[in-house]
Amino acid sequence: MFELHRRRLLALTAGLATATFGFAAVPEASAAEKTLTAVMSGNLKALDPSISTAQITRTHGFMVYDTLLGMDAQYRPQPQMADVTVSDDRLTYHFKLRDGLKWHDGTPVGAEDCIASLKRWSRYDAAASRLFEQVASLEATSPTSFDIKLSAPFGQILALLAKPSPIPPFMMPKRLAETPKGQQLPEQIGSGPFKFVAAEFRPGDKVVYVRNTDYVPRKEPASWTAGGKVVNVDKVVWQSMPDMQTTMNALQNGDVDFVEQVPLDLLPVIEAMPDVAVGKVRPLGMQVVARMNHTLPPFDNLDVRRAAMLVLDQEELMQAAIGDPKYYHLCTSIYGCTVPLASDAGKDWLFGAGRKEKARALLKASGYDGTPVVILQQTELDAFKPQPLLAAQRMREIGFNVEVQSMDWQTHLQRQYSRAPVAEGGWNMIFSAWGITGIWDPLASTVIDASASNQAWSGWPKDPELEKLRKAFSVETDPATQKTIAEKVQARVLEQVNYVPLGEYDILAAWNKRVANLPEGPLTLFWGATKKD
Known about the structure:
By secondary structure, this protein is an alpha+beta fold. The protein has helices at residues 2-18, 55-64, 111-124, 126-132, 157-162, 174-177, 244-252, 267-271, 302-310, 314-321, 355-366, 387-397, 409-416, 464-475, 479-495, and strands at residues 35-39, 69-71, 77-79, 82-86, 92-97, 135-142, 145-150, 194-196, 206-211, 235-239, 258-259, 276-279, 286-292, 328-329, 373-378, 402-407, 429-435, 500-505, 509-512, 515-516, 530-531. The longest helix is centred in the first third of the chain and has 17 residues, at 2-18.
């Protein structure tokens, strides 16, 4: 791993020294037009932010669409498209759309549009579907206002309507929101601060957004996805590039303005560039996770799952994948290390002496019969490429029979959703990463869904007790009691080995210094950013 990093560093240094470009430079905008060109960490292929949970699709969603409520930097839901009034019994939520809201086709935003959008969201988002189990009615009270009436209090309703991940409740015209389930949206029409330019979209290569001149920002200062979304550039272009050397050349020379994620091993070279700044625009990072397939042997056996968990050492795995401790964090919390619900409940499963000996004893007592464990390894993303190899080594040391199967990222994604037996394309164990914004509470977190349903994440654990705790959290209105329930959820997740949290790593961006005022947020945001000529 470290030799690979050294070779990459030398290659990048050599490439910058020659300053010879291997790509067609981004065309210059007219002098009067300000274009911010960004290289994102993934290529946008799926456009529908209700169907795809890909991070790049979600970022696209926040460019084009808006939400009824936003989430500020203190994790508080705030009015965005609408102001909300709550009845004393917490059963009626009245939403009044603010003035001046228009769809990108020029038509006004109406209450019926929002009602249809919320219903569409409930068909795709697991947490939203839980909310809608408590919805007694959802009706317009005027052309620009509507009520959500509940059959029983639901303490997380405002947090869900403001959540930025994994499927935010984006508002869209009724005619689009009524697109049949499973079908992609035929158009990208929202009311957000940018318009998607369909004619210039090249999937996996180039995406173009222009400033929505009809957008009326809120008066409050911007804070994460809440407040005034003031756009200061005329156009934002997401431009794919073939490799990081080409990208850094373009950034240093001003052909690219912003790079969403830079490899940590290349920071010494990037930080030496006089016209480039490096920092975190996403203060919440990514949690690396190990997931076992609960539906197939041998991980349908709890003791076997526990034995595997006990040999996965966060420090060792983070050292292998990230290297510099400045950029990773060890913690027990399934919600993230720094969020309000962070907890140490169940830490003995993840930290402490003698874990390898306990693992060996558990595996022996489990009756494990040598059933092969197939671990999938993706070969493209450094942050969770080494873990399968290191995990396989540690598991073999205590008696597991392990096979690692390597593949590209897209093949890995397709394979991990297979419920087939291993011999027919299934799997036993995977490693992945989840943004903290998508796991920061028991209801929002898809990764801990233990319903074994199609809305649950790959691995499909079934744990009725955990689901009871998650439901109790969702309806609770007292913050102190919510935190107590969240701790019980975490303890249960680790005790049953729903999945294994393996620490967090930071996401660092780089930008040309002519760009300023990049906003912090739960994902990369472009409103507020300015660019000097």
